[in-house]
Write a structure and sequence with these properties.
four-stranded mixed beta sheet; 5 helices; 12 strands; 26% helix; 36% strand; elongated
């Protein structure tokens, strides 16, 4: 019986659908197919298939370089690779399942699947020359540069205030502003236990959003409140 050869565009479409289904189960938004990312993924899958190599730098470049060459201006990116061989061949759905399940079961690959900041995806699948059906799958995730998050924290109080963003703790001096630029949105947290500078405890959390100012202001009870306003745009 001849080996089953899958329809490659169907495999690529199913990989995207299965990826979004998995992201949905993790409470994450769907990623949308992007033509330039697809171009980069297909080109690299073909390169790996034609050369018999299999690594993220087989062509001497990083994934980000290949994405840029394909015309995509990225803010952040991730890449997953998969290789499957079977003398019986593959149905399209089965090949897609093998790729996605393999990535889910590998912590570094799963981290790309569930990256909260990515918004777009490109998938390329290529058949490698071999006695038995062998397929390379390349999956690219990215967030475009146009979706970089820019915001400010402004302290209009008379005392320094500490806050955390992106895993780092910052202290902002009185009457000053700090600008942030990040490839992914995240939580800004303002916390203190009261006493000392602030007799009232502070515990406030906000989702960092593009184009906003998080202005720290004293309140009437000896604490601090945050006023969220649009940034002034320089023309």
């Amino acid at each position: 019986m001849p080996a089953v050869l899958p329809d490659i565009p169907t495999v690529e479409t199913q990989i995207i659908a299965m990826t979004n289904a998995y992201r949905g189960r993790q409470g994450l938004g769907a990623v949308k197919a992007n033509a330039n990312l697809t171009k980069a993924a297909r080109a690299y899958a073909k390169y790996l298939a034609d050369t018999g190599t299999f690594s993220h730098t087989a062509d001497g470049r990083e994934a980000g370089d290949r994405i840029t060459s394909a015309g995509y201006q990225w803010c952040l990116f991730g890449e997953n690779l998969a290789l499957h061989l079977d003398s019986r061949g593959f149905e399209a759905l089965a090949l897609a399942e093998k790729s996605v399940e393999g990535w889910i079961n590998s912590p570094p690959h799963r981290a790309n699947l569930v990256a909260p900041g990515v918004t777009e995806i490109g998938v390329g699948v290529a058949q490698a020359p071999d006695e038995d059906p062998k397929y390379i799958s390349v999956q690219l995730f990215a967030r475009p540069q146009s979706m970089r998050v820019r915001f400010q924290v402004s302290n209009t109080t008379r005392e320094p205030v500490a806050y955390s963003f992106g895993g780092d703790t910052h202290e902002i001096e009185p009457r000053t502003s700090v600008s942030h630029s990040s490839c992914s949105a995240g939580e800004i947290s303002f916390d203190s236990f009261g006493g000392g500078l602030w007799p009232k405890a502070i515990s406030m959390r906000y989702e960092a959003r593009d184009g906003l100012v998080y202005r720290l202001e004293p309140d009437a009870d000896g604490g601090v409140r945050v006023a969220v306003t649009p940034m002034e745009r320089v023309r």
